Amino acid sequence: MPLSDCLNGSCGQSYGGSFATANQSIEAISTKSRQANGRLLRLIMLICGCLCCLPSSLWATQGVTSKEIRIGTHTAMSGPAATWGLGAVKALRFHFAEVNAAGGIHGRQLRLIAEDHQYQVVRARQAANKLVLHDRVFVMLAALGTSMNQVALPLQEEHNVANLFPYTSARLMSEPFHPLKFTASVSYFDQARALVRHFHQQKLQRFCLMHQNTDYGREMLDGVEAGLQELGMSLTAVETHSPTETNFLNTLLRLREADCEVVLLGTILGDTIRILQTRQSLQWDVTMAGNVSAYDQIIVDRAGTAADGFLATASIEMLYPETLTSSVAQDFFAKYQAEYGESPNNAVQMAYFYARILTHALQLAGPELNSEKLTTALESMNNYQDELGGPVLQFGPSDHEGIEKPLLAEVQHGQWRTVRSVMD
After folding, report:
1. Terminal Cα-to-Cα distance of the chain (whole angstroms)
2. Per-residue model confidence as pLDDT tens digits over 389-399
3. Kind of pairing, strands 393-396 and 382-384?
């Protein structure tokens, strides 16, 4: 059509039919598209509705399958704290083997994955990364060391991996409150305050402290200073040392010169043994006391008579074959002796106790297991005492510490004996 016809208005008349046909085609396509979108939307809603009706166990929970529950631990199986780490791993494997032989937990077998961090922070970070990101464990149990737990916690919280009953009594393990953090021990801070109150009741006035220059040691310092401040007192002298220090002669000479009446220790195994031996060599009859990190039979065995009269706070009483009262504890000692050719030491006893708490909570959590159900199960264990014996646990929705007050024990005739079952 000539352009002049379009300018005269004939263009619209000539192409009107074509335009109308095109519009009808577009409207038809739009209608079909809306119908298709509607069917797709209904299909999506139907799928979502079906998924919501499925049991929660079918949703992916890290570390939980239809056949197993993966439990991780990072600890020291070599290095200066290997006695604790090796004992803990043996105890966890021992109890999980018992449970698995009896059919597991709601049909699932328990699988322990243990990583050796050699009591080094860098290796602990690497171990936590492997356990959480590669092995995808459900929970972390009995992880060893204050700083080692500290570097692992952020990653665990990010991936909803609970931190249960670590081998450290640092306040960080329970403060600030977090639904995924549970302990079964009194904090170093509160143990230190309890020691100060105890010796003040014994009319001692000149308090001194030796502690490692670590996060653990500094928490002991904080607790001692807080306890003394409550009484209007202050430390007479303070000495610090590295975890690898082996010579304490000059340190003890300075403390003796300061006329200390009691020396509190923020130490672990090796340094405690050497300090006690040095005290004996100096023939210095001064009272010494530590916390749960020094509450171990290895100190008694290696320090010998130098350990006589040494005191320590703890949360769980150490058992000996002749002191067993429950049939469950007697059975555990007998089977462990038969398996490993030795009685379970304190590290083994603690880990076995922790493992039993976990497996009891897993039973309570039910077959549709996830972190929330495990947390609820643990929180329901208020006034709970395990058949093994030990302290009464006081968990609740706003309390994940489990044990409120420490006991006090003393080395007597080559063994630890509880002298105060509860320290106010």
Report:
1. 107
2. 889 999 999 99
3. antiparallel
Return the bridge partners of 207, or none: 262
Whether the CB-CB separation of 292 and 189 falls below 8 Å is answered with no
| Crossing angle of helices 146-158 and 121-129, rounded to 10° | 30
CB 111 within 8 A of CB 71: yes
Would you say residue 335 has pLDDT above 60? yes
Flag the least confident range among 113-122, 366-375, 384-393: 384-393
Alpha helices in 54-167 (DSSP H): 82-101, 121-129, 146-158
Q: What would the two tokens of residue 357 be?
A: 């708490």
Q: Residue length, the chain?
A: 424
- Verify cis geometry, omega within 30 degrees of 0, for the bond prior to 176: yes
Q: How far apart are CA 287 and CA 260, in angstroms?
A: 9
Rounded Cα distance between 108 and 365, Å, is: 13
pLDDT at 340 over 60: yes
- Taking only the tens place, the pLDDT of each residue in 155-166 is 999 999 999 999
CB 159 within 8 A of CB 100: no
CB atoms within 10 A of CB 143: 29
Instruction: Say if CB 131 and CB 162 are below 8 A apart.
Output: no
